[in-house]
Amino acid sequence: MTTLEDTPVGPVPGRLAAFLHPRVGGLPRHFWVLWAGTLLNRLGTMVEPFLGLYLTTARGLSLAQAGVVLAVLGAGSLGGQMAGGALADRLGRRATLTLATVGTGTAMLALGYAQGFAAIVAAALLLGVLLDMYRPAAQAMVADVISPADRPRAFGLLFWAVNLGWAVAMVLGGALAQEGFLWLFWIDALTCAGFGILVWRAVPETRSRDARAGDSGGFGRVLRDRVMVCYVLITLVYTFVLMQGMTTMPLAMKEDGLGPRAYGLAIGANGVLIIIVQPLVNAWLTRRDHSLVLAAGFALVGIGYGLTSLASTVAAYTATILVWTLGEIAAAAVLQAVVADLAPAGLRGRYGGLYGMAWSGGFLLAPLGGTQLLGSGGAITLWLTCAGLAFTAAAAQLALAPAIRRRRAAVLDTSFSSK
To answer: What is the mean pLDDT of residues 20-44?
Structure first.
């Protein structure tokens, strides 16, 4: 079996080395290329947050029409995750990631220049399919090149890169949108394509010969893995709750007389806290039992959203956001690592695709369910329901914990015996 080895970087003397090594040390160069590409990609993520505004202003669509376009984009993402997972196992991680990201750049420009409702919907569907197609390949690539013991730390570093890039993109995107929305489409397209080209040039195919031989059974085999299916359903519930902060929270704040500026200030605390805290606690969290970390993270998210039922000022909303962001940080430290532990080498792409559907599905369902709860029962009903769902996810994760521990122990034993 072909292995990927890289020359380690020499240690930095002193206290800095002692601080950095358990957090970023010992990871191969190929991972850092992927990390840099992820950061580049997220630095250019400017279209999605402003797409609704673009559709209703620059393209003159009604709110209902804009909603259809956004729903089509989300539905396309569901199919794209599955297709990306299958391609990552069949075609290879490197080719799938490059195809998806370069294709996303092309589809981004198609949407930016599309005129007329039908053309915009078609471009949105194409973009939705391609937009997240790279994710299963990227996740499988990390599992291919990183040992099971170090995978949680690696996925945590990618989570940090995503949030750092997102925070910068929000600031730049808002400023550039005033100069013209096409700037957003071009920058997003170029950074997407740049990510794929970087990986194509600097990272060889990571799928081993053993993994190719084990590529059998397709998604049917994945769906017969009851532990994985249960884990995906738990993640879907968690994602539905987490995404309320990005979808219905501004509507709830509007009912308290707080406008977009107030929401921007409050939700900005989410990114700031992740950027500051996540690198400090990630290594510590990844050494703990994964299911316990997840349950604690889900519970913190539930507490944060439950407390939001009491909020009516910018300061109060910000405080509750900080609470559920701590839960998000905890969960993100191990969420993808569990998937990597559960997945056989030949099906890592498909397992990642099924896991990705939980996020695409949660993002699609969050505004639909959240607005229904907000409209029928008010903010208190919305936030207390979110708290109940998050606590349910935490309890379900604890129930699933023994099965996940057994699977992880088997993976670690195999990894140790192969050395």
So the answer is: 85
